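Encode chain A's predicted structure.
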Amino acid sequence: MRVIERYSTGVRVYRGRGAWSLLTPLRFILSKFYGAWLRGTAGRAVRGAVRPYDPGRTPLIVSVGNLEVGGGGKTPCTIELASAVFRKGGRPVVVTRGYRSRASGAGVPVIVPAGADVSPGKWYLLEDELAERLHGKTADTGAGLRSEILGDEVLLYRSRGIPVVIDSKRDRGVRAALELLLPTHILLDDAYQHRAARRDLDILLLDWKRPFGNGRLIPLGSLREPPEAADRADAILFTRAGGRSVPAVVKPFIGDRPVFFSRHVPDGLTARNGNLSLDVLEGRRIALFSGIARPASFEEIALSIGAGVDVSFRFADHHSYTRRDIRWMLHRAGSETTFLTTEKDWFKVADLFPDNSDLFALRVRMEIDGLDELLETAMKLKKPLHEAGAHKP
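Encoded structure for chain A:
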């Protein structure tokens, strides 16, 4: 399989590729400054107190996060937790900042009802109201534009029927969820470092093969926080696990916390005309493309299903595709090629590819060992909202 990278200059600088490796000393210095800043702010932010709209209604609040930048499996984990809540008859709601979306800068909570009955209000916006405000009533708000407005992760939740509240201020987003969506469970997506929002359970995701990346803080490495920050977690979930043993490098930081293991498994295909089985790819010449933090993981899953992969095009995480990108891939891949991408990328490219192109998204889900036990752990830690410590500025 050929790998063709099409990264921006900014990504190459960050990764220190080629001549940009000359900037490694500067990245080392910046990493040291960042570490000093983290130590200086340690302890200032603690788990905050969210004032409930209705004191009698206290949903279980679960945070899903990691220590590394991007690609940690937070979205598939959150989807799997929400699916388990649905199966038990509950009403999950995801609260997220909507990374790199127009909604994150709206200044008010943006509600993605996903089938829930929510009326327009003055202190929040429904997704259609935001789309109209940004692009007008007659604008084409297809999947690509919705991805720009809401963010690719939010569209994944929406496709599963999971209501979402997008807000850069998580505590305000939680209050909006409480008032408007009446949840039994609130799932905080990527909130491990956002400690102002109270939670009952902090799930920390660690990659089983490389739990702490290269062990260095950004921008020299991929860590947002040093390994010692794992001490704040209530439960550890290892992703992409090849076994059920705890990696030696993690053992000093786990203590007696409950530990869980998970894997990313293929779950079918998405096409323009609906969902299909993986058998559709049999005998085809496949070109992969992705704009995610860990393209190698996507490539590994695609190869595991027996797909005849000829080439993989790698773009930067959260890449905004253009028609020029599509034409470039069509030219490089050649004729009679089937294109396979991730679900996150699907929303951004489905309207850009020619109608006669063979284009599919590989659906992947997280298979969590002991999923019910993980939710039971959260229930044991649940406490009334007013018992949480107040946020300290």
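The first strand starts at residue 2 and ends at 5.
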